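As the work plan foresaw, the team has encoded backbone shapes as discrete tokens. One protein thus recorded appears below exactly as we store it.

:::
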Amino acid sequence: MLDKLPPSLLKPIGLTLGWAFLLMSILAIPLSVVTLMRWFSLSWWLALPGVFLVSIIPYAGRFAYLGLALIGAWYVIDAGFSLRGAVGPFID
């Protein structure tokens, strides 16, 4: 697919995609934890093993892990990049 692009655009697009995947892989765990904390009113030490349990399911778990991370990113962006605000009203 990328071979149809002009050669001058291949490197910038490849670098952008590579950095986006790197950033998403680094932030996937915290964003998934935010999602589980918000949905189920869990503390972080209960949500973290839940994220790891979801991620070890062969195929459906991978899509769920990605979905949880994207939803968590939405919550964090909506809260003005505040993890505490993204979790919502939560009592420890």
In short: Residues 7-40 form the longest helix (34 residues). The radius of gyration is 16 Å.
